[in-house]
Amino acid sequence: MREQIGRVLRRLSGSRQATIDTIEPGSIMVSPRKPIEPFDVAAITEVLDLATKIGAVLLDSGTGAIDTQTQIKFVAGVYGLEDVDVDVTYNTIVVSARRGATLPPITTMEQVYYRSMDFTRLAQVDRLVRRIRDSFISPSTAHQMVDEIITAPHPYPHWLATTAWGMMASGIAVLLGGEYLVAALAFLTTVVTVTVNRWLNRIGTPVFFQQLTGGFIAVVPAALVFAAAERLGVQIAPSQVIAAGIVVLLSGLSLVGSVQDAITGAPITGVARFFELLLMTGGIIAGVGVAIRILEAGGIFLPTITTTTSFEVVELPIRVVAGAVAACAYALASYAETRALSVAFLGGFIGTAVAAASTFTDIGDVIANGLAAAFVGLIGGLLARRALTPPLVVAVAGITPLLPGLAVYRGLYGILGDQTLDGFTWIANALAIGCALAAGVTLGEFVARSLRRPQLPPRPDWRLRRRIALREDREARQAHAAARRARANRWRPPPPRR
């Protein structure tokens, strides 16, 4: 029995490592290359520019500052730059290569002006770093590959991504206890929200006002249908539709990256990301509040919120599957690769199942969500490594169904309804749940990375370096001999005339 369990765990974890696993300091040998001469300014600048471009794509996709810094150092070290200083902040990457005590350092800088969820781009950069590690590709070739990755269009059309956002909202609505009408209304509301926000982004509207607009749109259709429910002969809980819309708006924020930076040793970047998270959440709250006030002025009053996230035993399978569908739909909406969709589905299934099982205990929402996120980070991280998918994809998608959209709306409703103490209590509860989700998934990912830590290569470092140095010297001698023969042939006197 023990052997069978061990065999299953080995098949689950697989034998492949994520790129960030294989570049842990001291874990494996860096692919040896010939060191760049300190006087070769062009070669040093080319390598630094390549490393900063790769780091910009990673930071743009939500990767933590420490992981981004590690991969930049790794890429520079592969090409022969070992004495490199890297500074990764909220939207700036500065890389400096030291050239000794007598020469000034060479520095490059890259700015990240926006953050877009494109998981395919993240996976392609991950594979590029693997090729740089395993193959002897030149910096110029790697530059062309990075430029192609950056300038390539999204792998899916906009209408498919918009439909995926709607499917995600429907899954969240069912997870919160809604039925077919609630799921359909959440789908339509989210499609309208995403379409309007995409147009606002195209004309350069700040993200805060996009979030405000999204919060406003999330409330109005549900309130109008609720007001006409008697005439239509239907029953609807508008809080479920509104909460689903809030979760969709919250899912695009860098919750995991902000807490991960604060935990792993980048507090300045973590504080900056967390402040951005609070500001964007404030835009959602402002939009919902404005919509509620306008509706009340028009005579439409939303009901008192009674919906909770507790699970009934009979409804447990449906809600767990709905959470998994929401996670898979979020991965699709964020342009994840096809191989990552099934892993995201399993991550959402695991997180929702653990959170659902925790509701039958007395551990509380904060601990329950943190525990569920830890399982997502651990098991989802192992599955991601087996599918050659960046673990960040599974981590973000797996905790998306657990985001506290209902707690945010409940807190705002209490503040606007003269229940200030209860409102701020629910807002604080939502903030605690969000931090628990991010901290839990970071802990699970750390454990997964420790389990899949690669072993040292059996061949000594000096022997491999010696073989490559001998091969490079042989190639240099052959090139020198060929050049000497070419010069001799060029200056050879012409044969005498007969």
From TrEMBL:
GO MF term set: transmembrane transporter activity
Annotated GO CC locations: plasma membrane
Lipid bilayer topology: Multi-pass membrane protein
TM region(s), chain numbering: 212-229, 241-263, 275-296, 340-360, 366-384, 391-412, 424-448
Protein's UniProt keywords contain 4Fe-4S: no
Major localisation: membrane
Any Pfam family: ThrE
Keywords: Cell membrane, Membrane, Transmembrane, Transmembrane helix
The Threonine/Serine exporter ThrE domain, residue ranges: 320-446
Region (Disordered): 474-498
The UniProt record lists the keyword Transmembrane: yes
Subcellular location: Cell membrane
Biased composition range(s): Basic residues: 482-498
Span of domain Threonine/serine exporter-like N-terminal: 49-294
Single GO biological process annotation from the record: succinate transport
Family: Belongs to the ThrE exporter (TC 2.A.79) family.
PANTHER family given in the database record: SUCCINATE TRANSPORTER SUBUNIT YJJP-RELATED, UPF0442 PROTEIN YJJB-RELATED
Protein name: Amino acid export carrier protein
Naturally occurring in which organism (per UniProt): Gordonia lacunae
